[in-house]
Specification:
With 392 residues, this protein is mainly beta. Helix content is 2%, strand content 59%. Among the domains are: 115 residues, no CATH class; 108 residues, Immunoglobulin-like, CATH 2.60.40.
Length: 392
């Protein structure tokens, strides 16, 4: 770095030394620092930000030594790369060395001619991050939401960026400035009338099966579901993970706060949901009606080792509301299983997760019969070396 004769506003420097041996004095006395033409940053989740900058550099025919050094910033030296863009077939990187005890590296670059070359330098820079937040507002009918997304950029890296392109995901970048110690909040997405579905979700792994036996009322998790696609007015880029606050307009044109959730990462074409709270106007009760072991296998001492089991469950649902609702019922069946009598249609999320989307009219009650067989249930502490004998 030109540490004496040049003070870089970005605290990052280049020197091109042609036909000279590399020494610390040479880096101090010979200064040839091309200005940045373009800078882009890509925010990641690893705690460091990818910085990509383009510069125009003059190479002489033969071996050129290019010094890259930095001060008062935290850069991962192993992440620094140089890519030639204008004449990649005429310029090649022979080697890279790291001077001991210095925040610097030196490339030996061979040029076949005197060239003016556009290059891209990439590196991982610490202490820059971006926090995504969402604000969603729905109307009294809860049929659609207006969605705004913001990014809060925080720069504690030591770098001053006067003009940078910021990439959040697979969408188009936005241009801004970001100086050291600066925090900036920027609107990056604004969409209106995104269709939503109000969903009530009961998950058998998380919810009590007999809520009437509890001392406090049980709430059914409630959320707004929507798609990140063109039909919804979205679909141009992935929605990033971030905190979401949900509001509702009332008939007096004021808003009330419904809830807060962490929106998940949602690729284009996928659906997502934002939880707004719990509803105590829907009651779900799950009962085990019957179980029966069959196909029992024992070891030579007569102890049961492996068996199949028939299971009969009943899930009762009641809508206490004065309007219809859609209940998403999630049932998980562990192990290898076969359906016997399941009284409602369902979709499988994976081999063990069943999802029932059940419409309940106002004050309506419904029951779901869930009968299935679980195969090859092993008794605890079963050893694969035990000899199994079938006595049935």
């Amino acid at each position: 770095m030109a540490k004496i004769k040049y003070i870089s506003p970005f605290l990052l420097s280049f020197i091109i030394l042609s036909g000279l041996s590399f020494t610390a004095a040479a880096r101090t006395n010979l200064v040839s620092l091309p200005q940045r033409q373009h800078v882009a940053i890509r925010l990641g989740t690893t705690g460091k930000t990818l910085v990509q900058e383009k510069r125009i550099m003059l190479f002489k025919k033969g071996i050129n030594k290019v010094d890259f050094s930095w001060q008062n910033v935290e850069i991962d030296p192993s992440s620094i790369t140089l890519t030639t863009l204008s004449n990649p077939d005429k310029i090649s990187i022979l080697s890279v060395s790291y001077p001991p005890g210095e925040a610097a590296l030196v490339w030996d670059i061979k040029s076949l001619a005197n060239l003016e070359e556009e290059v891209m330098i990439s590196y991982l820079l610490a202490n820059i991050d971006g926090i995504i937040t969402y604000k969603a507002v729905t109307g009294p009918g809860e049929q659609a939401i207006d969605l705004n997304s913001y990014i809060v950029l925080r720069n504690f890296s030591g770098e001053n960026f006067n003009k940078i392109a910021v990439y959040l995901n697979d969408g188009k970048p936005f241009i801004t400035s970001l100086h050291h110690l600066e925090t900036k909040r920027i609107l990056v997405l604004q969409k209106q009338n995104i269709p939503i579905k109000k969903l009530y979700t009961w998950n058998s792994l998380k919810m009590p099966h007999e809520p009437e036996k509890l001392k406090t009322a049980v709430g059914i998790p409630t959320s707004y579901e929507f798609y990140n696609n063109k039909d919804s007015g979205l679909g141009t880029a992935s929605l990033l993970r971030g905190k979401a606050r949900i509001f509702q307009r009332d008939n007096q044109k004021s808003t009330i706060f419904l809830g807060e959730d962490t929106a998940k990462f949602t690729p284009v074409g996928d659906k997502t949901d934002i939880r707004i709270g719990d509803s105590r106007d829907i009651v779900v009760t799950k009962l085990r009606l019957d179980t029966k072991r069959t196909n029992i296998k024992r070891n030579t001492k007569g102890s049961i080792q492996v068996y199949d089991e028939y299971i009969k469950n009943s899930i009762a649902m009641e809508n206490l509301k004065d309007k219809p609702v859609t209940l998403s019922l999630v049932e998980t069946i562990q192990g290898q299983w076969e359906p016997l009598d399941i009284s409602m249609d369902y979709k499988t999320q994976d081999h063990k997760t069943l999802i029932f989307n059940i419409k309940l009219l106002p004050k309506e009650k419904k029951s779901l019969n869930l009968n299935y067989k679980v195969l090859n249930i092993f008794v605890n502490q079963f050893s694969q070396y035990n000899r199994v004998v079938n006595y049935n």
